[in-house]
Amino acid sequence: MVQTIKVVPVLTRRDRALFMGLPDRLHAGDPLYVAPLMAHRREMLDCARNPYFCHAEVALFLAWRHGQPVGRVSAQIDHNAVERHGPVGHFGLLAAEDDDVVAALMGAVERFLAARGMARLLGPFNLSINQEAGLLVDGRDTPPFMLTPHDLPHLGPALEGLGYGKARDLLAYAVPVDETPTPLARRLAGLPAGRLTLRPFRLGDLTAEIIRALGVFNDAWRDNWGFVPLTEDEMRALAVSLRPLLDERMTCFAEMDGEPVGMIIALPDLNEAIRGLKGRLMPLGWAKALWRLKIKGLKGARVPLMGVRRDVAGSALGAAIPFAMVEAVRPHLRAQGYRRVEMSWILEDNLPMRRMAEAVGGVMSKRWRLYERALQ
User: What is the pLDDT of residue 34?
Assistant: First the structure.
């Protein structure tokens, strides 16, 4: 018997709750899956709280079969991305029971974006390239670090079966905290001198510090494939969300003549603290998370943000700055009991960053894929 799949837009509060919770059911048999905090999911989809909605149009879709939700997806038009890269629409938040559901969902996305003049479809982005990006295709045998996708294994082949091709791969490198850097890394870390100084972020002025850091990030990444700059409102929202996790000793500014030219931010892997909580801190989840964070201590951290301004990146000093910043934060990570750091994500064709990650002891640990297809 043919199973009818119906895809409908998410319009009601009930449907939105089903949309947010669906991945938890689909991943129920995966012991490595970590349910994101429900508060984070609500904030991401709240147009009043997520500044992404100030420059983007988003539609959410649920797939139903036999009266039960079996898949979800989002369709996005990021007008800032369109301004930089042309009429390219995005999709994201993809979760589906099987390949037939994927086909039905992507059909809805394609129709939505084509009707609005988009010529190409790219994703997944949850919701933007500056949030969670890519579909996990390699490295599913280890738990996900915070704010990184952990996807069902059939999704990639299902997209390929629909004619979607690889656009780019995004990589993660696992860096052991205790590993001794290579001689090259030690030599480069020792180069910065003269007008260059290294300092941690000032938590007493955190919002301004995060905006400075993301200014460096926007400059450092501006010529990279697919890049869309963060707006100032997005920077401020990110500063607020990072504040509870930020430890100034896990951050570093490289400054030249008092102006930031490089930055790195490492964050405790929140997924370690919330694993097994099913995305909820109430009624007792908050106590477990707090105990893991403050008493037991976490073993993993993630570096989601790192960069060097373009006007210095091409110099010998600029090449040394990333090594110096990594070595500036490594002693604190070691002293606090961290054992592993994930540097992610890194574009597969960003060879300087990949070589840097390898020189400080990193080994490629995960691969996420961005898919694209022409809309006809």
Answer: 92
